[in-house]
Amino acid sequence: MSSTAAQTDAPLTDAEVLRIREDFPILHTEVNGHPLVYLDSGATSQRPIAVLDAERDFATTLNSAVHRGAHTLAAEATEAFEDARGALARFVGAEEDEIVWTSNATEAINLVAYAFSNASVGRGGAEAERFRLGAGDEIVTTEMEHHANLIPWQELAARTGATLRVIPLDDDGALRLDELESHITERAKIVAFTHVSNVLGVINPVAALVDRARAVGALVLLDACQSAPHLPLDVKQLDVDFAVLSGHKMLGPTGIGALYGRRELLAAMPPFLTGGSMITTVTTTEAEYLQPPQRFEAGTQRVSQAVALAAAVRYLDEVGMPRIAAHEEILGRRLLAGLAAIDGVRVLGAGIDLPRVGLASFDIPGIHSHDVGQFLDDRGIAVRVGHHCAQPLHRRLGVTSSTRASTYLYSTEAEIDAFLDGVAATIDFFLGGVAATRDIGVRS
């Protein structure tokens, strides 16, 4: 990368952000005759040249099947593939054999859910006992979850007879921590929740949820899709049993994600997907499986994507995750305060003083979010519209959809201001009102 940022926790300077932007070719394009203002990184982030080059270089110099061939190219491809696993493991504070490659976070959550399901019908032997579910057992999640961290648990409950419990939210969209004891009971077998809400941008109190789960002997799964790209992440320090992430949200390509699982838990889990590459011995009637992580990596793997994701985490490490978090906190405050200062805008979620990333969702009564998004797109401003795969959360807050702006390390204050001007202009155009932004005074 071109930035030579010093190793510090200080926010990125304006000059450093501009240097970083030079590494992202797409940020220099125009949309509808305007410079692109990309505020949809919460859905899919952009990729720097180093990531694009890593995937292309693998395809042009190392492309081969991993863990299979005995020839030189296969050995070198395998080494690159496993080096990528090590890079991601270090990035999240895990051991290499605790990282399982998946297609995305959705597959990773389903992997865990189906391990519970398979254990519940007797697969996995005595070691899998703690994953077995039945009537009287409980699965716990929250009302703010992405559908990927809700529907797999709904289906698991339906398959096993367990009960799904959902921790409610208050009127501001914050978790009802006073409800933890009544919702995470001694019958809970797993508690699955998001680290950062993909709609509200708030950082959830992981310690409080983990402490309660530990008190009743439940396992913990953390959805880190919106935290791994934006915050320093240490799964051991957070004391979670499982964590999931998606590469395309953290400067990497699509089609690659990962599951972190404690070594002893992965060793006890029966597999989800089965087939080639995850076995030791096969007869026509039975099979024996490899140790983790290969036990959970059936079939041909996403090798070039894993190599590219490793390039992405090295890029993020070089910039410095504390610096990225500090930069986005500033942008997030500016974003939230600016939206709150526009007459006619309802910002979803709790107040500006809560820990958060640079993401905010809002509703404009009288204007559908799709119309808001289209109006902004006409100005070259890319945002997300709809329910963001979080219908229960939107329903709890009394809306069917919202508009979401989300930042990243390459976002600038000028882009936030262009977006705020666009929102004000949207209200003027559709409602004929006078929407004026006040001085938001969040950074000199």
TrEMBL record:
Enzyme class name: transferase
SUPFAM superfamilies (alphabetical): PLP-dependent transferases
Domain Aminotransferase class V per the UniProt entry, residue ranges: 37-419
InterPro entries according to UniProt: Aminotrans_V_dom (IPR000192), Aminotrans_V_PyrdxlP_BS (IPR020578), Cys_dSase_SufS (IPR010970), PyrdxlP-dep_Trfase (IPR015424), PyrdxlP-dep_Trfase_major (IPR015421), PyrdxlP-dep_Trfase_small (IPR015422)
Named cofactor requirement(s): pyridoxal 5'-phosphate
Molecular-function GO terms, alphabetical: cysteine desulfurase activity; pyridoxal phosphate binding
EC number: 2.8.1.7
Superkingdom as given in the UniProt entry: Bacteria
Pfam families: Aminotran_5
Single GO BP term: cysteine metabolic process
Catalytic activity: (sulfur carrier)-H + L-cysteine = (sulfur carrier)-SH + L-alanine
Role noted for this protein: Catalyzes the removal of elemental sulfur and selenium atoms from L-cysteine, L-cystine, L-selenocysteine, and L-selenocystine to produce L-alanine.
Family recorded in the similarity comment: Belongs to the class-V pyridoxal-phosphate-dependent aminotransferase family. Csd subfamily.
Protein name, UniProt field: Cysteine desulfurase
